[in-house]
Each structure stands twice: as structure tokens, then as C-alpha cells.
């Protein structure tokens, strides 16, 4: 096996292990926050900004019927607010309640963020650019493959 093939295999194995740990981290965080992992996933998606209910369902990979239950649960505990879309009253826009999220959710993830920052401390700016590029490419692969799986 060539050195490159060994490195690629090592990276693919590291991605697999990291993905498994990411799932475990999400499960642990969801338990601490008092929601399920799908609800936490939706909160994460909403941290980028308001989404219509149908867009939230699409991005989360769940049905529109399921997203209604997610929104109901998250609204009941004060993490999100739903409103009619001003442009199209048939649509519902879901907004993360940032103050509530900051009080309850942010402290659960703060130790992870500190640890991740610490893990990046030894890298040069050029290395960080390379890592950021790799993660952007990884995200694109995930998006493409999730779309392919849903289409099949």
C-alpha cells in the first residue's frame, strides 16, 4: 500500500470514529438539555437563522408531520417561536429563541468549544485554512450523499 493510500485510509477511519463520537456527544448533550436528538439537531439548524417549518424538515431529514411535533416540543420549553411568514401566510417560520438557548444550551456545549479551540491552538494559519477547506469539502460530501440517499 502506498503512503498516500495509507494516509487516506487513516483519514477515512478517523472520520468514521469522529462521526460515531459526534453522535454520542449529541445524545449526551440532548439528555442534559432535556430534548431528544432530533430536537437538538433542529435547534442546531435553527442557530443559523429562522427557517420555514418545511425547510427545517427538509434540512433535518424528517417529514413535515414529524417537524410539527419537534416544533411543538421546542416551543413548549421556550427554545423556539413560530410565526406566520409575512410574505406567505400559509407558511410557518420557526425562530430560535437565542436568550433561552444561551441560558440552557450554550453551557452544555461551552466545554466542547473550549476543547476544540485548544485542539486548534498548535496549528498555523495556513494549516487552519487547509483544515477549514477539508471540512468544507467534507460537508459538501455529506450534503451530496444525504441527498442521494433520500432520492433513492
TrEMBL record:
<dbReference type="GO" id="GO:0003677">
    <property type="term" value="F:DNA binding"/>
</dbReference>
<keyword id="KW-0238">DNA-binding</keyword>
<dbReference type="InterPro" id="IPR036388">
    <property type="entry name" value="WH-like_DNA-bd_sf"/>
</dbReference>
<dbReference type="InterPro" id="IPR000835">
    <property type="entry name" value="HTH_MarR-typ"/>
</dbReference>
<dbReference type="Pfam" id="PF12802">
    <property type="entry name" value="MarR_2"/>
</dbReference>
<dbReference type="InterPro" id="IPR039422">
    <property type="entry name" value="MarR/SlyA-like"/>
</dbReference>
<dbReference type="GO" id="GO:0006950">
    <property type="term" value="P:response to stress"/>
</dbReference>
<dbReference type="InterPro" id="IPR036390">
    <property type="entry name" value="WH_DNA-bd_sf"/>
</dbReference>
<dbReference type="InterPro" id="IPR011991">
    <property type="entry name" value="ArsR-like_HTH"/>
</dbReference>
<feature type="domain" description="HTH marR-type">
    <location>
        <begin position="4"/>
        <end position="140"/>
    </location>
</feature>
<protein>
    <submittedName>
        <fullName>DNA-binding MarR family transcriptional regulator</fullName>
    </submittedName>
</protein>
<dbReference type="GO" id="GO:0003700">
    <property type="term" value="F:DNA-binding transcription factor activity"/>
</dbReference>
